[in-house]
Amino acid sequence: MAQKPSIPKGTRDFSPIEVAKRSYIMNTIKEQFQLFGFHPIETPSFENSDTLMGKYGEEGDRLIFKILNSGDYLNKVDDVLYGSKDSSKITSKISEKALRYDLTVPFARYVVQHQNDIDFPFKRYQIQPVWRADRPQKGRFREFYQCDADVVGSKSLWQEVDFIQLYDKVFSKLGLEGVTIKMNNRKILSGIAEVIGASDKLIDFTVALDKLDKVGEEGVKKEMLAKGISESAIEKVKPLFNFTGDTSEKINKLKELLVSSEEGMKGVEELEFIINTIAEIPLDKTSLDLDVTLARGLNYYTGAIFEVAAPEGVKMGSIGGGGRYDDLTGIFGLKDVSGVGISFGLDRIYLVLEELNLFPDTVAQSTKALFINFGKEEALYSLKSVHQLRRSNIVAELYPDSAKMNKQMKYANKREIPFVILAGASEMENDNFTVKNMQTGTQETMNLEELELLLK
Amino acid sequence: MAQKPSIPKGTRDFSPIEVAKRSYIMNTIKEQFQLFGFHPIETPSFENSDTLMGKYGEEGDRLIFKILNSGDYLNKVDDVLYGSKDSSKITSKISEKALRYDLTVPFARYVVQHQNDIDFPFKRYQIQPVWRADRPQKGRFREFYQCDADVVGSKSLWQEVDFIQLYDKVFSKLGLEGVTIKMNNRKILSGIAEVIGASDKLIDFTVALDKLDKVGEEGVKKEMLAKGISESAIEKVKPLFNFTGDTSEKINKLKELLVSSEEGMKGVEELEFIINTIAEIPLDKTSLDLDVTLARGLNYYTGAIFEVAAPEGVKMGSIGGGGRYDDLTGIFGLKDVSGVGISFGLDRIYLVLEELNLFPDTVAQSTKALFINFGKEEALYSLKSVHQLRRSNIVAELYPDSAKMNKQMKYANKREIPFVILAGASEMENDNFTVKNMQTGTQETMNLEELELLLK
């Protein structure tokens, strides 16, 4: 009756070394979250369907995993509806719960539900898996972790400054050089829309502009014209075609360009404050850049927009992102609570560290010493020392069976255990151990105290 | 359009302090798992339904949360079956995935699926949530964590010894005194069944015997007779009615009782080895006891059976359990792989530590210093120091808004932040800070270096 075992597509098993590497990244992020004053919360894996449905657009609704009601669930569907065999209409009758799709909506729900227990501004972080019924492909999974930090209850731009510093500290701690934190502001985009005379063309505009590197100025203009952006509008935003230089030069260009747009100028002012402040508290290993083509999450961000780019040369999409949203909790009835947050892309950061060989060798705390099992008496003698070593935080093990020496050595070899400890009659008599260094092949005799020193 | 937010019954939100306390327990367990040479794995939250269904009995099948297929899932149900409106038959047509019900079956699946990459004996630990559509009640949830450690690929009793030590070390590290590790052996139970002349009466027998404390010897006998256990059988196992004394006395009683049962004597021998070995490597804060009424998981354990009892006086069921199973991976086609494992009951351990007030005060790493925000210039001056302090692993924050002093102080108070730092024009001029101790109310002026020393 044996089944050939497998797992659902888009999901993953993580082996010990993979868990160790993922934990290394998550712990690094967590440590900085905490140093920056963020507190962890956790929400249930599934929410009531009406908490999630309608929050991510039509496409999002389709990608939410629904959980079937228990018991005789079909009994509750009325016969006429049942007769229609219409999946889309019957779903809400046979499924009342759904798996978390992201951490943002559950966070908003949490804030509203627990508002009386929360001291605002509330700085929370959350590292939990989310699920999406997306078509699986390279680097896209149906179950993956999100690592989010958000502040709600303050409109202060000091938060944006702190988040940029937080990104910098995490990537610096991970040893990742050359990361760029790209920033934009929704108000800049609105200003551009004003200048080109049509908000509905804004996406077309940024998409075309983003191709500047590839197709050149003429190519971009051509695309813009094709999308119905007028010649005169294009002329007005010409400075964006040569949007180079350091951030302060870029700020100056934007000031010129957006002078006629009140909202645009407000965006420039916000960007300027952030950039000037970061200049006073320099970043360690990342750099901050201004990217007016950044239109990420345009529908809900209202202020700053962030996106983090992997070092040049590593082919990888963004490894983080975030921004400010002025009315996140409004959907659950709590108005006027501004929030700003960032997210780390765990899976992609993993791939980048792997590609650049940046995981420390010590990432997997593995066994330092394997004691060979020569039989009952010898094993007991060894096990006593194993426990002594563990008390000193040294990972030590006794091979469980008194198997052939060869088999036990092979096990140590395969698991890359650096020291094998042998204790037979003569060692027991002299209260010592023969210690074999598996790398050099040399053997030495020593007592427990010396062994402990060697392994530390 | 606001919804009143809530979460599904049987699930929980965890606040920052709850997450911190849960992490404290999980990290303590994890640390010992690693010291004992166990490696972490993780498996997907949902498995293919056929991996899980049929593995937990009929009741278990009902309690497994099923995930609805995506798209027009009803389209794939043939019309005759659909017409039956029979939930139990239609489920498998509209749901191909299900949420993990425990960590044991996914672990068995993992071992079989990855057998070629695994070096046996394989020592793994796994700390992940599981889901059960159980009726929620006090202390029973629909989403909860399991913390398991198992070894597969060795029949050695040294493993059982190591697991008892592992229990001891975890509960000792948690500062929990008076925990009892109760042990039995499936072979002892089989021996008793032989002696009382009926294996089918074994459960009735242990259930009745377990009431000895409450109803006395006569009460137990009465129940046994009522259940159809003969007078002469009861006479034979009379020593169990006075099953007191230390473990070696208990062993002697069992030897007398089970002398006629080969399997029973094998069980006694196994118990004796474990008890004698533990006597040589004494436990720190827990004690080992022999409990022949322990029949936990009778259907799959084949050797040792463990159950951990909270300290006397704390009203709480078992806070851990485990045992040896000789054919876990057989269900997935890999025969003859013996395993043994234990599990920690996170939620109950949490309640015990809470009741006994055993969580360390330092469990939540919270903000040490809040810098008051007096406006742009002052905030920048403060933020520079905030970053300096964070570099020294001190959790420091700048209040994000230049709100009224009173509001900022209130925030510090509510969040129990021990030091509030004030820097206005005069401090900026003298390159120092006014530091207010929130507990004593005293104020002091000092430079950054002194502040760093104070906060460390």
TrEMBL record, chains A, B:
Catalysis: reaction(s): tRNA(His) + L-histidine + ATP = L-histidyl-tRNA(His) + AMP + diphosphate + H(+)
GO MF annotations in UniProt: ATP binding; histidine-tRNA ligase activity
Keyword Protein biosynthesis listed: yes
GO biological process: histidyl-tRNA aminoacylation
Pfam families membership: HGTP_anticodon, tRNA-synt_His
Annotated binding of L-histidine, by residue: D102, L103, T104, R132, Q146, D150, R296, Y300, Y301
Annotated ranges, domain Aminoacyl-transfer RNA synthetases class-II family profile: 1-400
A Gene Ontology cellular-component term: cytoplasm
Principal location listed in the UniProt entry: cytoplasm
Primary enzyme class: ligase
Keywords linked to the UniProt accession: Aminoacyl-tRNA synthetase, ATP-binding, Cytoplasm, Ligase, Nucleotide-binding, Protein biosynthesis
Summary of subunit composition and partner proteins: Homodimer.
NCBIfam families: hisS (TIGR00442)
Family: Belongs to the class-II aminoacyl-tRNA synthetase family.
Protein name: Histidine--tRNA ligase
